Structures are given as C-alpha cells and as structure tokens.
Amino acid sequence: MATSDNFNDDSLHPPALDHQSPDEAGCPLSWAMLDARAYIADRRNTTTAYGRTSTGVEIQVTFCTASPPVVSYFCVWCPEEPDLAKLYAEPRIIAAEADIVVLGVGLCFPNRSYGPQNQDIFVYQAGGWAKAPSLHLVRYPGIHLYFNVGILHHPNHNNQNEDPVYIVGFDPSERPWEFTVNLYNSKAESWSSFMVSLGRQHQHSQFRHSASKVIMMGEDDLMGFVDLRRGILFCDVLACTRLYYIPFPKPLKLKQQQGPDPIVSRNIAVVQDDIKVVDCSRCSISGLWKVSVWSRKAASLEEHWNMDHTLEICDNLVDSTTTLHFELLPMLDVDGIPRRTLEGLHISYPTLSLDNDDIVYFMAKVEPWDKDAWVLAVDMGTKKLKDVGVFRAERCSGATISYIHSRITKYFSSSSGMKGDLKRLGPLLPGSPCKKHSGVV
C-alpha cells in the first residue's frame, strides 16, 4: 500500500460506490459527478490507461463510476510502487469535456520549490469504438492552468485519431478588457498564444472578469469563459475572433457582490440547447437555503435570461413515498428531539444534472468544516428530494472544487468503470477478460 508523505492519508483509501441502480448496471452512464482529486490506489478496469511522466515514471489512471448522487472518482498509481514518492501530491482534474479529461500531475524535484514548472499535463481519452483508453503527456510551457481551462474536441466515431484535441487556457492581461488565449493542438503537439479583446463598450478600467469555469457551446468552436460572479465571455478560439460578453441576470450579479465565493455557491452547464446557471445562498430572514435556476438559449447571444425554478431547502421537499436513501442523513437535535432534517444542514456546491431533468445536486454537511458530507438530489420542477448519497469530504478544504460534472462516462464501454475494483494481475490488454473483486474497498 502507498505510504508516501506527499499524499493525504485519506487519499490512500478509495470509497465504496454504493446503491447503483440495477437497471443501470452494464450500461454507460450519460454523465457523472467526478471527484476532482485522485485517490492513490491500484485500481484497474477497462478504463485503465498508462503513461509516463517527463521524468520517466510510469503511471496508470483508472476511473470508478457510479450514478449520481454518488460521486465517482479516479485512481492514480505507479506500477513501480517506490515511484509514488516522485509524485508531489494527488493528481487533479484540470478540465473535462466529452471523452477527454486533462490531468495535472505534480512532480518532486530535489532542492526545487514546487510551482507550475514542476507539473506534468496529461490528456486522458476514453476508449470506445474498439479503441483502448489512452494517456498522453503534453509538453507544458509552465503557464497557469487551473480553473481557467477548457477542452475543444468533437469525437469522431469513425476515427478518433483524425480529430485534434485542443486545450485552451484563458488569462487576463494588463488591460481588463484584453485576454490571452493559450492554445495546445494535440496534432501539432505545440502551444500557441494570441490576444483577444472586448468591444469598445467594455473597454474601461471598471470592467472585471476572472474565469473560473469554461463551457463548450455545442458542435461549434465557441467556448464560454465564465466568471461565476459576473457573466460569460464567448470566443471562437480557433478563429481568434473578438470576445462577446453576456452578463448574468441582475439578481445574480447583485447577490454575488457580497456573497460567498461563487465556486461553492454557484454552477453553470450547457444542457442540450440551454445554458443553465444555479445559485444557492442562505436567506438572512428565514435562515433557509434558497436556490434559483436560470437559463437562456445557447444558440443565440441575443437571448435573455429566464428564471426557471426557485425553492428553499426545507423538510417540505421530503416525500416518504418517493425519496430514496433519506435514512443516510444524520440525526440532528430539533427542539430536544433527534430527527433527520434538511433544515439543519449547511448546503453548498450546487451541481446541475446534465440529463435535462431539472435535478440539481447539493453537498450537505452539519457544519461547513465537517469531514462527513452527503449529496442531495433535488428535483427543482416537482420541488422534491429525490435521493441522497454519501460523500467523503475529508479532503475538501476552503473554497476549492470538490467534484465536477463530466460526460466522460458516456464514452466508456458497457463494462468500463463500473462498481468494484480489480486485482492487479499485470497490464490489461484491450478486450482482455477481467474478474471483478467480490467487494469494494
């Protein structure tokens, strides 16, 4: 078992993936909530891919998935176990889109402080269409890549090798209305940079935009760089065209001026033909958590925002006949009586379902700093709590991304990444038969 001092002890013990629906067993999930931080463990299945760091260390990456509200995760391991000491910390997901996940892997160097220059970037591509998953090292120029990164890739069902993968970084410049786009082309295996600028109406010193999330706009090359406090900057990253700015609706902009860090209270996604934004904040009067969902058509920059749903997280959401796994929630003291209640929980990290079913997922804790957490699946349309999952939050600290939503599971084969883990018997070949371990640890 790994014992490197570079890792959180909790990262050495991946969680069990429980209460997966029987009708989903054997079928790829259309999407999943994916822990952004790797577990360090020797897990292998048909999602496993192998690569080498810039220092020659072999690593393997494996995804273990389950249906929301359970949070899926990925594991990183070095087949030569002593090599784990050469990794600086748990690898993290930098970006995910379609069948691609971009990973950051920190490396240890003697007598050198850690920084961007000590990080390797890998592109993981899911298998499928008779192709094995892959893990490729990207030449990394040491630029800032974290929340501000998107992926441009339109998978070709006939030949995955024909379609380049673009990694797109988006950074502010000295002028607040100008930005630098850093673009990696997997076919050319090279980086390029160019400047983009807003129109004259935004060219003033008061304009602010700090991208903390990136969204892809359908089948085109248009990307949206999202400041979760303010709005979205749209850019066709291959045509190097001018930026277009769409602010969030005024109620969301006003709320975020004094509100919590938007990373923990707000999220955005493109779901079918709509851009959706979910906001979660505590009402100063009732003390309850209030949630609103806004949307606009993705196809037009001229559309307006519409508020689709609003509700308060309260016990009225619970339906004893339809709410699943409510018994997983903790017993809280309510007027001297222990009972399960939503109204005593701290709510954060709203996550939009990518199935266009009006469900939003929330992380719930008794106290914000607790290590125990739950994921609540709330149907915003029916205003009912649908399901409850358990999330191990001992590795979460401060305002950082705990998990993301990703469609990569859609591209896994029917046996990929399903509940369970595999004994390590040597490198798996594409199509090799595997026997699942009888339990999940």
From TrEMBL:
Sequence segments annotated as region (Disordered): 1-23
Top-level taxon: Eukaryota
A Pfam family this chain is assigned to: DUF1618
Residue ranges of every copy of the DUF1618 domain listed in the record: 226-361
Protein name per UniProt: DUF1618 domain-containing protein
